[in-house]
Design goal:
565 residues; alpha/beta; five-stranded mixed sheet; four-stranded antiparallel sheet; 11% strand; globular
Length: 565
């Protein structure tokens, strides 16, 4: 990639740059706002409702506009916030060339050349279109099966990066022709990690770790206190990008932004290189629902799976358009995968701990290793403190946020700070031994707060067979609880521990669902129990209110198409 390599020679390469989310709309919203998405209600892809900017603030291009910049975006938006002000132009024709003579500018140029959809080819296209990169020379990730499809997919992905380099070479030439190259900072990065299977959508390194090269213009290299061509070891995340751009422009960073600048005035690269933490989050991805948080500190990576029984491979229509995904599933069903290759299709543990210095592909979980007990305890506390400190809203089901929070998510979080902390404490009962927490779980199941009961049942499912002493109580809850989703979690527990087929409970819950998002949550449990617990659960379209099925690509239709067809 000679164009990007040229940027690096007159700039900086960031070895540890991270998207906070492994999927585009959530990642792009984090970039645009400079705030953690679960704090501001922007954590779901695709969004069920646009949320307002926190505390009457604005997206960062707006602040550049107020300082006299001409701001342009070509062309993708895909944001989760309802913000219309900030761009002078946002279209496929947007260009800095439309500004007034001499006016400073800020421009975003997007390309889909390496988008996930670029790997949605058929077997016929594989036979017809040879890759430039030799598939036989590919070194596959160890969790991938070694097949012609996986090798071709990886080779095509590398070919696409060469196309990206050629694409951006044209814009470099435009800047040179306009006499702007020596006055213009250029950031090259992806909006999340890679799109090979187990990348996009997952908080593993392949989903969060992004390339970042910053070209430093000759006329402004005095703003950078390190030699050009250097590699930066310090950790930077998407929450830091907006503060950095504003700082480079000499604009004060607004209070709503959670990150801090890593370039510009009053930024010491020695201090940046001491930064060693990155926080990541994954929630609903299209119709597939999960709830995962990650914390990387140095070379140690901690992943908290709040619903560990949700396997990574849980069906997602868009993912499985890729031949590599569907082949991987077929090989799992046929029983021909190795233990490492099967991990993607099997329940996770509530906590995962990886030493990336020796295990860069995150396949050897050290959470139960006594030699890493102190590290586990430290990482667990740091992540727990963090989700509480930001009022992480995902501790409530999305259907609740849709009805009660999305009109002002930050205000809702502040009003519920103590409650959010309490719910996370109940969720974290899954991290102890069952004998130590069974009494606390019983108390939570008797709570007047429906979401305390909800999380206690998720914890029971996390313990699995160890929690079978709660089957009778869970059956009673599945019949009688006043909250529909609490009954669903009770039914899910009954199914996961083999107590009974939960079909009747889930069908009744679907008929009683009050919103589309509530129904999607229920259908996720159906997919899990059908595909990975072996239950026959018959779902028909008549079980779902018709008005929720009007949009052809809606999340509920994607789930129904899969379950019904």
């Amino acid at each position: 990639m000679p164009t990007i390599e040229g940027l690096a020679r007159h700039g900086l390469v960031f070895e540890h740059a991270f998207s906070n989310a492994p999927v585009c709309s959530v990642a792009r919203t984090t970039l645009l706002v400079g705030s953690y998405a679960p704090r501001i209600g922007a954590q779901y892809h695709r969004r069920s409702k646009l949320v307002p900017m926190p505390d009457g603030s604005h997206i960062y291009p707006w602040y550049l506009q107020q300082a006299g910049y001409y701001t342009t975006n070509n062309r993708k938006t895909d944001y989760n916030v309802a913000e219309t002000e900030g761009w002078n132009e946002s279209s496929s024709d947007a260009s800095w060339r439309n500004r007034k003579p001499g006016q400073p500018f800020f421009h975003v140029q997007n390309t889909a050349l390496t988008h996930e959809s670029s790997l949605h080819f058929s077997k016929e296209e594989m036979k017809r279109d040879a890759t430039v990169t030799d598939p036989d020379l590919i070194t596959l990730f160890p969790y991938f099966p070694d097949t012609a499809i996986f090798r071709y997919t990886h080779a095509q992905y590398l070919d696409n990066h060469v196309k990206v380099d050629n694409y951006f070479a044209r814009y470099m030439e435009m800047l040179k022709k306009d006499g702007l190259l020596e006055d213009t900072f250029i950031f090259y990065f992806g909006d999340h990690g890679g799109v090979l299977p187990r990348g996009k959508g997952y908080v593993y390194e392949n989903g969060l770790h992004v390339p970042l090269v910053v070209y430093v213009p000759e006329n402004y290299k005095h703003l950078i206190d390190v030699e050009l061509g250097s590699r930066v070891d310090g950790f930077v995340s998407f929450i830091d990008f907006a503060p950095t751009i504003l700082n480079l422009a000499g604009i004060d960073v607004p209070a709503h932004m959670d990150g801090k600048p890593f370039l510009g005035q009053k930024v010491s690269m020695d201090e940046v290189n001491r930064r060693d933490e990155a926080f990541g989050y994954a929630d609903r991805l299209d119709e597939k629902i999960d709830h995962v948080r990650a914390l990387r500190k140095g070379n140690m990576k901690y992943i908290r799976n709040y619903q560990p029984f949700n396997v990574d491979a849980l069906f997602n229509e868009y993912r499985y358009r890729m031949l590599a995904y569907s082949e991987w599933l077929d090989l799992y069903i046929s029983g021909t995968l190795t233990d490492v290759q099967k991990q993607f299709f099997e329940p996770r543990t509530a906590e995962q701990l990886f030493d990336l210095s020796s295990d860069p592909f995150e396949i050897n979980n050290l959470a139960q290793d006594p030699a890493h007990a102190d590290t586990l305890k430290l990482m667990r506390k740091r992540l727990s403190d963090h989700v509480k400190s930001i009022n992480d809203l995902s501790v409530f089901p999305e259907s609740v946020l849709f009805s009660e929070a999305f009109d002002n998510p930050v205000s809702f979080g502040r009003r519920n700070t103590d409650r959010i902390a309490r719910l996370f404490d109940i969720a974290d009962l899954a991290l102890g031994s069952f004998d130590e927490v069974d009494r606390a779980l019983f108390v939570a199941l008797e709570s007047k707060d429906a979401w305390e009961r909800y999380w206690a049942l998720i914890v029971l499912s996390s313990f699995g067979y160890d929690a079978k002493s709660f089957v009778s109580l869970a059956r009673k809850i599945a019949f009688e609880d006043e909250e529909n989703l609490v009954r669903v979690r009770a039914a899910e527990f009954l199914g996961l521990v083999g107590a009974e087929n939960p079909e009747s409970y889930l069908v009744e819950a679907l008929r009683n669902s009050r919103t589309e998002m509530e129904a999607v949550i229920i259908l996720n449990s159906v997919v899990l129990l059908r595909d990975y617990a072996g239950y026959q659960i018959e779902i028909t379209r008549q079980m779902i209110p018709k008005q929720w099925q009007e949009a052809a690509e809606s999340n509920i239709n994607l789930r129904l198409n899969y379950l019904v067809n």
